């Protein structure tokens, strides 16, 4: 699967340190092939669609999702070419979801570049996302394993999770249960699909597939919780995320849900600032002063500690899921990803 002609093209920028040089070299070469597959997939006879797709893909990214697929494949036969197609499909689904997210959020930037919706229009961005989703599932359609082809269900879960984020928990619904359900669909489902596809396409055994599924579920929720904390404490130059972005767009993050359901003056003030607009659900427009005040209230709120405890619990669950897997560099790297998520949240 690793070919010499690609060995120098794609660095593992932004990825956890790989102390095993053989694994690092193999992943670097395979990610280069995956990159080629992605670029072949986004070719279109329609110039605007081709340009918009390339604009999004050229913005780069850490390629976490294809790397997870490639790591999972190390527990089977990583040289099966279907592994590469599955890895490329995972990145295409991720890119498509980002393109749609930018429309929903009214975002003007993506990975430091003008977003597709800002450069062209919402309509172009929606159609580009649809195109990328279709190309991803065309890649999966060539995979002989029936279970792998059925990963189209991940698309259903992504959409369901996005709807849950937009609507928020219903009156009387436990906010923590709601959050986990939402994040399991919106974020964890794709990470679960990445490792599941890597295991299935490499011919790994059922025990390995189940272990990696559990890992993907727990790791995905932990990843989103850490992202919630980055919105409060992250440095923009390192995380690429401006503080208070989630508050600005009205995202129901875990610390916010904990704080809004709490008692005390800080919780009461947050409810005043972020109170619902009649007929529209929770407020999604804030002045700069309101966002700064809400962010500061959240930073000092006990909800942050509760959130960190929940993050630690999901990281521990992800690590425990790896127990049945054979020891080696691939398992070590999956564990290192867990440590990276914990460190990422500060």
Question: SSE layout and pairings?
Answer:
Layout: H1 21-41, H2 47-58, H3 64-73, H4 81-105, E1 109-110, E2 113-114, H5 116-119, H6 122-141, H7 146-149, H8 153-167, H9 175-201, H10 206-233, H11 236-239, H12 245-249, H13 254-260, H14 265-273, E3 276-277, E4 281-282, H15 288-299, H16 303-321, H17 329-344
Antiparallel strand pairs: 1-2, 3-4
Family: Belongs to the FPP/GGPP synthase family.
Keywords: Magnesium, Metal-binding, Transferase
Protein name: Polyprenyl synthetase family protein
Structure keywords:
346 residues; mainly alpha; Farnesyl Diphosphate Synthase; 2 domains; two-stranded antiparallel ribbon; 17 helices; 2% strand; disordered N terminus; Polyprenyl_synt_CS; Isoprenoid_synthase_dom_sf; magnesium
Question: How would you describe this protein?
Answer:
The chain has 346 residues and is an all-alpha fold. The protein has two domains: 21-150, Farnesyl Diphosphate Synthase (Orthogonal Bundle), CATH 1.10.600.10; 205-346, Farnesyl Diphosphate Synthase (Orthogonal Bundle), CATH 1.10.600.10. 69% of the residues lie in helices and 2% in strands. The chain is built from 17 helices and four strands. The protein has helices at 21-41, 47-58, 64-73, 81-105, 116-119, 122-141, 146-149, 153-167, 175-201, 206-233, 236-239, 245-249, 254-260, 265-273, 288-299, 303-321, 329-344, and strands spanning 109-110, 113-114, 276-277, 281-282. The strands form two sheets. Strands 1-2 form a two-stranded antiparallel sheet. It has a two-stranded antiparallel sheet with strand order 3-4. Strand 3 (276-277) and strand 4 (281-282) form a beta hairpin.
């Amino acid at each position: 699967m690793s070919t010499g002609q690609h060995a120098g093209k794609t660095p593992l920028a932004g990825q956890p340190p790989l102390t095993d040089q053989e694994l690092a070299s193999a992943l670097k070469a395979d990610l280069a092939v995956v990159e080629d597959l992605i670029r072949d997939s986004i070719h279109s006879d329609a110039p605007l669609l081709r340009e918009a797709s390339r604009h999004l893909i050229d913005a780069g990214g850490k390629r976490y999702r294809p790397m997870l697929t490639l790591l999972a494949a190390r527990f089977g036969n990583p040289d099966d070419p279907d592994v590469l197609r599955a890895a490329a499909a995972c990145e295409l689904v991720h890119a498509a979801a980002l393109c749609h997210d930018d429309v929903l959020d009214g975002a003007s930037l993506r990975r430091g570049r003008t977003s597709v919706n800002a450069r062209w229009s919402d309509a172009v961005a929606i159609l580009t996302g649809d195109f990328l989703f279709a190309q991803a599932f065309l890649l999966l359609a060539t995979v002989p394993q029936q279970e792998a082809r059925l990963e189209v269900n991940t698309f259903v879960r992504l959409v369901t999770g996005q709807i849950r984020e937009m609507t928020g928990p219903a009156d009387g619904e436990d906010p923590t249960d709601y959050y986990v359900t939402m994040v399991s669909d919106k974020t964890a489902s794709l990470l679960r699909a990445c490792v599941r596809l890597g295991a299935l396409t490499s011919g790994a055994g059922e025990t390995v597939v189940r272990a990696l599924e559990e890992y993907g579920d727990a790791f995905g929720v932990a990843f989103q919780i850490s992202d919630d904390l980055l919105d409060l404490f992250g440095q923009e130059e390192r995380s690429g995320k401006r503080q208070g972005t989630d508050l600005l767009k009205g995202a129901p993050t875990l610390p916010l849900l904990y704080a809004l359901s709490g008692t005390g003056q800080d919780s009461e003030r947050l409810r005043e600032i972020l109170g619902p607009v009649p007929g529209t659900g929770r407020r999604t427009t804030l002045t700069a002063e309101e966002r700064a005040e809400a962010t500061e209230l959240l930073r000092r709120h006990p909800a942050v500690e509760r959130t960190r405890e929940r993050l630690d619990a999901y990281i521990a669950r992800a690590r425990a899921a790896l127990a049945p897997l054979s020891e080696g560099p691939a398992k070590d790297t999956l564990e290192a990803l867990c440590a990276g998520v914990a460190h990422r949240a500060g």
